Amino acid sequence: MYGAIFTDVLGKTPQRSKPVDLANVSLINHGLKIEGVAMKVEITEKVENPLLQRTEIKFKVNHAGEPTPKRSDVRAQLAAHLSVPEELVVIEKLAGMYGRRVASGIARAYSSRERLEKIEPEYLIKRGLPAETKAEAKPEEKPKEVGKKGGRGQDN
Prior knowledge:
Blueprint: E1 25-28, E2 31-34, E3 40-49, E4 54-62, H1 71-82, E5 89-96, E6 102-110, H2 113-119, H3 122-127, H4 131-137
Antiparallel strand pairs: 1-2, 3-4, 4-6, 5-6
């Protein structure tokens, strides 16, 4: 009884298919995705701002089967799309949509490094940089003075 060969609805023995190499294939939302496929950046809106000498961009990133991409990767893709150096692109916002493999964002591309540093806040400039570059850009902190007590005007 237990050693019987199972058959399909028509009474035929099921055929075995060719083995599939599952090392490079993953199942995502009941569809197949081949590893190594790069994310796709699509610019949805592009506005030239001549007063501030920058281009303001709204974009979507399709990252099927992958986690939300790093800001540095998106920054590189945007720089390639706009034909500007990567260090002149600042990503203000990059947010994934819950349950979807799409992230949307806002970025700005400047005409020069001086304009970028003059207009953009420092935290946005540092946000997309690699970790070792952030450490170099961090200013030295002053050591706290020892012996002073904080309080509400008490002289102790």
